[in-house]
Amino acid sequence: MNLEQLRAKLVELRDLPAETEWAEFKHNYSDPQMIGEYLSAISNVAALESQAFGYIVWGIEDGTHNIVGTSFKPRQQKGQGNEDLEPWLNKRLAPKINFRIFEFDSEDGLPMVMFEVQAANTAPVAFSGRRYVRVGSHKKPLAEHPEKERKLWEIVSGPVIDWSAEICETAKIDNLDPNAIQRARSEYADRFEGDPKKSHLAKEVWEWDDVKRVIPADSVIVPWTETIHYKRKQHGYHGGATPQEMVCPLVLLTDRSSDYSNLKQCAYPFPDWWSPAPVASPVELEPVVHVAVPAGPPTLFDNLEPDEPSAKEATKPAPVEVLPASADWIDRLLASQAYKDQKSKIKRHPPQDSVIRQVLETLNAAGGFLTPGAFIKETSMPAARLDQVIANIRRVLNVDGYEILVIDRTENKVELNIAKLKRQFDVE
C-alpha cells in the first residue's frame, strides 16, 4: 500500500466499533512473544468474521482511538537472540500466513506501524505451538473457547463456494469485495517486490485502476500460482495452472444424436510408410542345377539326348505373380445357415452384412493381416469407430470363443484367421 492508502486504511480502522475483534491498537508495546500471539489471534478471528485480513496498529490509544504515535521500530526490533523480528515470527507461525509490516507517518506527522495479517485459510493459526483468538478486547487461548474453535475448523476445512461456476450477467466492478481487490494487489506486489528487474511493478500495482483491460472473448485468466484455489485442495485438484496444462491437447467427446456440422475431425498426419497395406511379394523359382557326370570309360547310354537342357542352357524363369485368394467363400459364408443362426443370436444391434463383407474382403485381400492404420485407410472407416465395429463383428464370427477375428492394440494388428473361419462355418 502507498502512503495515501495507508492513511485511508488508518481512518477506516479508527472508525471501527471498539468491540471489533480483528483490529488491535497499541501504543508502544513491543514484546516479541506477545506480538506473535496477537498474529495468531488476529488471523483466526479474521477468518471467524469473514475478513480477508486483520490489523494490528501501533501509535493509537486503544480506548479512544486517538493518534499518539509510536516509538516501536519493527525493522530494528529483534526476536530472540540476534534474529530480526519478522523472520523470527515467521518461523513460529503454523501454518504459514502472510503478514506485511508498514511504517509510515500519519497526516499529523506522527510515526505509525501497521501489521496487515492474512486470515487463517487452511487451519487455525498457532504461534509457538499454541492457537489464540480474540474475545472482546482480550487475547485468549483458542482451546478455552471450544465453540469458536469448532466454528473456525468448519470455516477453514469446509468446502468453498466456487464463484467461477456461474456467470453473473449483471455483475459490475462495484460488486467486487474491496478486500478481495486489496488482497490481489498485495499478492501481486509480493511476487515482484524482491525481483530487481520487476520491483517497479510492486509499486505501480497500487496506482492501477481496478479494471486494467478488457479480456478478449477467446482468452482466459488463470491463477499464476498453485497456492490459489477455487475450492479446497484435494487429490486431483492442486489449484492454479501450469504451463503444461495450458498447452495440453483437448479431447472433445460427442454423441451421435447431436448435430456437430461445424466440427471437423483432425487426425495427426502420418508419413506414407506408416501404415501401407501389405503387398504380396513375387516368388521366384530357383533354376535347376545339373551336376556334371565325371568322365570315364564309354558306356551303352552315352549317345542318348538329355531330357532337360543343361545347366548352361537353363534360363531364368519369369516371376510368378501372387494373387489374393478368391473371395467366393465370403459369399458362401454369408449365405450359409450356420452364419444366419449365429447372427440371429445377437438381439441388440447386430452388425450389417455389408459391414461384415467389407471387413472380410479387406482382410482377405491383405492375406488376413493389417495394421489398424492400414485397415482404416483401406476401408475409409472413422478411426474412433474401429474398435467398436470389430467388437461387434466378433460376436458373429468368433464362434464358441475361438479367436477368429482379433484387434490387438499392443501388437498393432487387425487379424483374421481365414482357415479357421472357413472350418467354423463349413465353407471350405
CATH architecture verdict of the largest domain? 2-Layer Sandwich
Q: In CATH's first tier, which class of the largest domain applies?
A: Alpha Beta
Mean pLDDT: 78
Unreliable residue stretches: 160-164, 320-324
Q: What is the CATH third-level topology name of the largest domain?
A: Methyltransferase, Cobalt-precorrin-4 Transmethylase, Domain 2
Q: How would you characterize this protein structure?
A:
The protein has 428 residues and is α+β, with helices and mostly antiparallel strands. The chain has 4 domains: 3-157, Methyltransferase, Cobalt-precorrin-4 Transmethylase, Domain 2, CATH 3.30.950; 174-210; 219-248, no CATH class; 328-424, no CATH class. Helix content is 31%, strand content 11%. The chain contains 13 helices and 11 strands. The strands form 3 sheets. Strands 1-2-5-4 form a 4-stranded mixed sheet, with helices on both faces. The chain has a 4-stranded antiparallel sheet with strand order 3-6-7-8. Strands 9-11-10 form a 3-stranded antiparallel sheet. Strand 6 (126-127) and strand 7 (130-135) form a beta hairpin. Helix 2 (32-48) packs across helix 4. The radius of gyration is 42 Å and the shape is elongated. The N and C termini lie far apart (90 Å). 18% of the residues are buried. Pfam families: PglZ_C (PF25863), SLFN_AlbA_2 (PF04326). Residues 325-426 form the Alkaline phosphatase-like protein PglZ C-terminal domain.
